[in-house]
């Protein structure tokens, strides 16, 4: 018999898929690490398990405890699956720009959902950073995950995502391109890959309205870079501990409109029904095309599934209202 002990046993070992149409203008082989095959439909299942297991091992999360996290949805989904399997309560704190689908999905897997305003500074008591911290202080036997600064996040990708990509490309990968939010994915995968072959280039995809690109290039945390944006899952107005700027070769920024349009193109031209950050990642990869030559093997990682965006990116009315549909 061949079965997993529980749903957590199905996390990881996701497929690698060749891009055939959208990247025609690039000579290199472009492969997508397709993370929607995880049980929570996103790459975040990997770090959710790791963060919880390490918190248990260190005694920070105790039996019957409540897990509290500020999450754009995918981490919450991953954490909720682990919480159910291991018998914890789960509270997710979201900002109000997150899609309704994400909130409904979190409730469907038993999580309590707390919604906070997006357009306030991180230090504002109403922000989702401050609210999650406050709830953790007020709730007995609770543990605040803090995916931004919790280094088990990066470790999960160093131990699983990175080695899978190396193996699936027979060590031939030359470039890794990925959206950056907490930084766990790029830092964990990037560190592992560069340890195998220091010549591998690691590129981060950032958004307009986020601080990463400017900080990487100048070392300056420029508050003028911060303004509200639409793209979900990537870009930040803080510098999370999980972003290891030393292993990142460069960032490129993708507009909200391009990210939305290319998310739809992935679905229609490649049959890849994916989330908003996948569109940003593939458009960013196309922006970097002068860096790739014929024999290169470029891996792009797609974080999450299209089902979470049917009310937005995959809704013509919303796209028209945003001015993204000509
Ligand atoms: N895309 C989506 C849809 C996400 O939810 C996240 C996580 N915020 C990312 C990209 C960025 O991944 P990471 O946090 O590992 O940098």
UniProtKB/TrEMBL annotation:
It comes from the Bacteria. The keyword Secreted does not apply. InterPro entries: Cys_Synth/Cystath_Beta-Synth, P-phosphate_BS, TrpB-like_PALP, TrpB-like_PALP_sf. It holds the Pfam family PALP. GO terms for molecular function: cystathionine beta-synthase activity; transferase activity, transferring alkyl or aryl (other than methyl) groups. Its EC number is 4.2.1.22. Its cofactor is pyridoxal 5'-phosphate. One of its GO terms (biological process) is cysteine biosynthetic process from serine. Residues 8-302 form the Tryptophan synthase beta chain-like PALP domain. The keyword Lyase applies. Gene3D superfamilies: 3.40.50.1100. Keywords: Lyase, Pyridoxal phosphate. PANTHER family: CYSTATHIONINE BETA-SYNTHASE (PTHR10314). Belongs to the cysteine synthase/cystathionine beta-synthase family. This is Cystathionine beta-synthase. It comes from Gillisia limnaea (strain DSM 15749 / LMG 21470 / R-8282).
């Amino acid at each position: 018999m061949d079965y997993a002990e529980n749903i957590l046993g199905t996390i990881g070992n996701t497929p690698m898929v060749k891009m055939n149409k959208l990247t025609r203008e690039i000579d290199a082989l472009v492969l997508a690490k397709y993370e929607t095959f995880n049980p929570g439909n996103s790459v975040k299942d990997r770090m959710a398990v790791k963060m919880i297991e390490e918190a248990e091992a260190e005694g920070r999360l105790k039996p019957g405890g409540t897990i509290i996290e500020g999450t754009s949805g995918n981490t919450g989904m991953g954490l909720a699956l682990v919480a159910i399997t291991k018998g914890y309560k789960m509270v997710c704190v979201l900002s109000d720009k997150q899609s309704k689908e994400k909130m409904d999905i979190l409730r469907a897997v038993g999580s309590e959902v707390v919604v906070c305003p997006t357009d306030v500074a991180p230090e504002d008591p109403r922000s989702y950073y401050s609210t999650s911290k406050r709830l953790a202080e007020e709730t007995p036997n609770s543990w605040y995950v803090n995916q931004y600064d919790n280094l088990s996040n990066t470790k999960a990708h160093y131990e699983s995502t990175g080695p899978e990509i190396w193996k699936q490309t027979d060590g031939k990968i030359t470039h890794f391109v990925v959206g950056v939010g907490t930084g766990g994915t790029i830092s964990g995968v990037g560190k592992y890959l560069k340890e195998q072959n220091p010549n591998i280039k690691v590129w981060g995809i950032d958004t307009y309205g986020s601080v990463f690109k400017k900080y990487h290039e100048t070392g300056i945390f420029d508050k003028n870079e911060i303004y509200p944006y639409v793209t979900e899952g990537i870009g930040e107005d803080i510098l999370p501990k999980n972003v290891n700027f030393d292993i990142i070769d460069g960032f490129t920024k993708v507009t909200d409109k391009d990210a939305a349009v290319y998310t739809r193109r992935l679905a229609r031209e490649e049959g890849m029904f994916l989330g908003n950050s996948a569109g940003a990642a593939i458009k960013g990869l196309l922006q970097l095309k002068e860096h790739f030559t014929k024999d290169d093997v470029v891996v792009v990682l797609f974080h999450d599934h299209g089902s979470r965006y049917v009310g937005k990116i995959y809704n013509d009315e919303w796209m028209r209202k945003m001015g993204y549909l000509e």
